[in-house]
């Protein structure tokens, strides 16, 4: 049996599912696991799946080393505009009950594809390695909730505990390239919902209302000054208002406005400072509007920084360059994006390495770089135009997972493990 | 037969329907018209109803004078917060397919109630007047589309043409009071939808996007300067952004933002000037953001100014003061709200009188006025707290329509019409 | 002797003087008063002059009626750009010690010219009237301080008390036209100085500062919402930030910013509401910036509304139309500009009439009106392009003062006063 | 002879002079040079001084190595608020003719003091080194103009050409500490003056004007979005509006507003991008206001990045740690401040090392760091509270210059230079 990875990817891409709704995806995953003869449990943390390959299978089942590989499965409420033949036209109902378009705009379809490919390879090459591989198909990474949800559901107890946690993410680097750095690889993040309370009324009588649309607009403009004025220009911080909603009709001034904020920072000290500034501005702008009810600020999720273990990262960098050629691995810098993968390693108290692999046609990338149009010409994750090339992206994703797992797994009986 | 108007009002209030969806309301109307033996047609302009009382019924059917009375039927996407025992908990699906709360926050339930009460009275007192009464139950006033829709559907041809068009609106004046003025009674209005185009992307990578949330916020703030800086302080103008929507998730920067604007002005010259300013600002703010696609500005509806015929208004003022006591009629000033009632009179080329009648407990009103809290203590139309007192509001609404109709109808045969 | 009024006007225009510095102007005034044989005192309220014509001179000196005529003398810190041959190139030092350009951008040079012409005429026609004329040449109207300064210096005690106070202002109406209305003719006004306190530092290290430039900019943008959102669109209100100052150098973030505000409203109730809103916004925007020291708000001057006595205004309207032709007087509406002339009448408890007279070439005015470019084509008071035509503006200004004074003065002995 | 450096510093601090006006300072410098028997020229680049010590003096006068030491002399238009006994109360007239307070808020008084102390030491220890020292006392660093001015005046031809250029800056590090890093040490910078053109008029008639105060405020708010939204959060960029000026009086809407901007970036590519964004926003905001005249943007100065030669910096780091103890040198990170010192090295095509030395009481620094109040408790350069402790700041400044110069100078005859 050989999984047709291209067909698998296209199928997953055409059928994206929102966070905690990845039932079709999980079904495809478990079908393949079954076909591969891999032991698994499903419905962990609502829609998550975890699988385990014990090699040799006759051992205790927790033969060291235990390597966890993680792939996330969920898609985003984005309307695909790639124009691809296999573009998504799917819709879903989000957590608030709203009907929304859905797209794998973050490439988790590629993560699932590469993971299944890697598992097939690891099964096929069992005589070349020893130890235990746990594959985690995680839901709801985009909500920053899936890892904690699986942990809360006992995944760390129900499966052999990791010695190391590994994961990878597709990114707008040239296909073939791998990006990884020791230390902080991705930012910490908070998602906030801010609700501003005004007083509604007729659109023709603003003076009898407290206009929450103006309150929201002034708040958004003022929030810009946190990064532009209050953060050391040499530090990394992001204050994004990802959504703003108020009102249903042009001639009714609504009573409320809602902002959803995504904040990024390299560490917990910066986190506290930025949260304090956001709160200060939100409260003051409501006061400037004469709001009678103070605004509410709710934290929807908190993501820790993703910190790569320095020793393991150096080891893996050598392994990748050895396998794929010197220069394959580049330092992508710290990403301002965030991840919940590190919860697995934090909770288990073991090292994490999380790397990026490229999905952009190398020629197109080189042209864009030469013309200084990288930012505008190459759609990034979460863009409606995000479209990794299929090859060699799929292959490199599979190979990277296998190389990485093998780097930390043991040698088969009779072979010297220290050859590593 | 006597309609229980309080029960009718409460029933309508509990079952509000969005614009062009007033089928239950129209059904109640036609049931009562049938009970009263009044001839009618339904489904005019989608969900409108028109009825005619010919007196004497044996005449040509178009015996002059012909008085048109108009009541609008639709409700608003507002979530009721009055706490009334009979408060609406209804929901509906608006034109964009969104599920929304629905409330008679503009009091059209009172309009329908008063109209049916007035028709019953006019039928019961046929021996006291002569002529033709046409009662128009109009849909979709809140969309500014219902009057034109009924006209397009031939209501002016299918019923006796008016000599005068009369209408009334519930308002936050003390119950018992009537407000009317000759000349411009209500402002002209346009409803615009502005779509701003940015470039979407990941919330942690703002530099790879063109943020439409910031573009929208800057646009809202700049639009304030039209009224604050560019309109003669002595002129009336309103630029309301009644809704703002962008984004679905805190960590995705969306590709677009949508603003819905409600504009008000006393005349067409001011209209052109304000529209020009709105367009100038919207385009420039998109340019300030470096938008690659220019914004679109679509006019959703245009409402003419509501201009009361001076002669007819003076006549009616005397009639109201005569019937209800001197001092009943006050000059409410020009309202910045808008109406589509005048399309009927404009199209027919006949005079219009449109008045307001009060729905606030007079004591509560007096207290609020004395303490200078009128604006904050008395919920206005379109507020989720809008709640006219039932009595004497219902009675005065019925009486006002009857007095007004009788003022412009003829005397019964044998009586000198010129007694008026 | 006949004053060459054109030469006088041009000389005054070329030598404008800032508020409370009108010494050269006062010197020219007193020279002409001396030449005309009119009794006067100078240095009243610092630089003011008051003169009195008693007719007959042998009476008590306070023969009723006593008519006060007022002209203001000061110029503005505006750099003239009219391109006129006699344009001002003058400079002055303002109250804060800053060197500034100076221009008669408000036309007080025309006021002084017309007043001296009117006094000459009144002296020459003493046999046609009886009573007392007091001519007040007031300083510092632009500071809103001159009238109170003269009153504090005893002008109402040192001269016969008025039975009526009259004054006039040049305005962008067609030359020949007079604009006046009973009731509120000009708005009440306050001038405020707002000081915002941040924390200074190096321009490259914004995070170590509290940036008062951003604080000031956000405050200015938020202040726009008072008029755009919080004032009934049918009411008159103006919130102008006439000056903003912060910083001395691009690479130093300053510690403070200063805003000067000019507020306008029709009455004292509106005044209180607007002041409250200004204070609310200023304080909240400082809080949004995290200011450690709260802002200060100082009232620099308060001007009362200028309210024309209804009876006297009607009388004067007839007199003007009689003298200059029906249609000369138009209702200019309420002006949002403010004046301190009414302090004289208020303090004395007598009626005031204050009118406007036109200074624009009638043909140019008509063309601009026809093409809808009145606002842009006709420079208004305080514009660097403000340039009244010399004729018939000077003549009409003289005539209007004489006609008005004569309307309220008595008939000479032997003539029946009631002929009026 | 021994210069009393503390007295010298206090004298310089009490008598700060604005850029290109450093005549008193230059006079003190030349007096000391004369006393020390050091050859010099003055008036170079207007108010600059350069001195040369040739050792041995009997050589060609350009005996290699030639080490240039540079100190800048000018002060800032800042009003001192340190409360120090020797605080400046000086005032000056800036380039625009405005009377301003003056303060050594950037510590150039310390630079001059340390330089004179170092020269005295080098003279006194001539038997320990060989080569040529050129000491440059530069004017107008704060204008970014002094280095170029001295170069244009031939300083590189009139004195022995450098083999290396060295310089130092006092900074808020603990006294005793030295901060230096190879590569980009300080940002590139541009100073821009933006003039926005509106249309002036009376403060009560905003609709007849184009309000440049609102235009300026909207521009300032929008400029914040460059850093907050358009720059990669991992890159360094600063957009500071250091000054904003418009208007002279609350009731006149002025015709223009002026903004002074200070921009910072690590390299020329970022420079071009940011300048483009500034221009885009400035133009669009003027368009949003309906400006009839486009704004002007003038570059007042351009400062290159200050890039430390890696080899020389490593060498000097070892020298400092050797002389003052391991751990003395810290990596201060890239500074967002800018310098014109590198023009000397760029023009001569030789390496530059530019380091910082601390001036804060180490205990106070440690406390502030521990309590997380570094930014607020320790006044930075350009703050009105900037106040380095006298000791050991003066001593360390002298020593650092001497150690650094000696590191790159030769050994005296007979000693092996390669001992270095």
Automatic annotation (TrEMBL), chains A, B, C, D:
Its cofactor is Mn(2+). GO terms for molecular function: hippurate hydrolase activity; metal ion binding; N-acetyldiaminopimelate deacetylase activity. The keyword 4Fe-4S does not apply. Mn(2+) binds at residues 106, 108, 142, 169. Its EC number is 3.5.1.32. The Mn(2+) ion enhances activity. The keyword Metal-binding applies. PANTHER family: METALLOPEPTIDASE, PUTATIVE (AFU_ORTHOLOGUE AFUA_6G09600)-RELATED, PEPTIDASE M20 FAMILY MEMBER. This is Hippurate hydrolase. InterPro entries: Amidohydrolase, Bact_exopeptidase_dim_dom, Peptidase_M20, Peptidase_M20_dimer. Keywords: Hydrolase, Manganese, Metal-binding. It comes from Microbacterium immunditiarum. Gene3D superfamilies: 3.30.70.360, Zn peptidases (3.40.630.10). GO terms for biological process: diaminopimelate biosynthetic process.
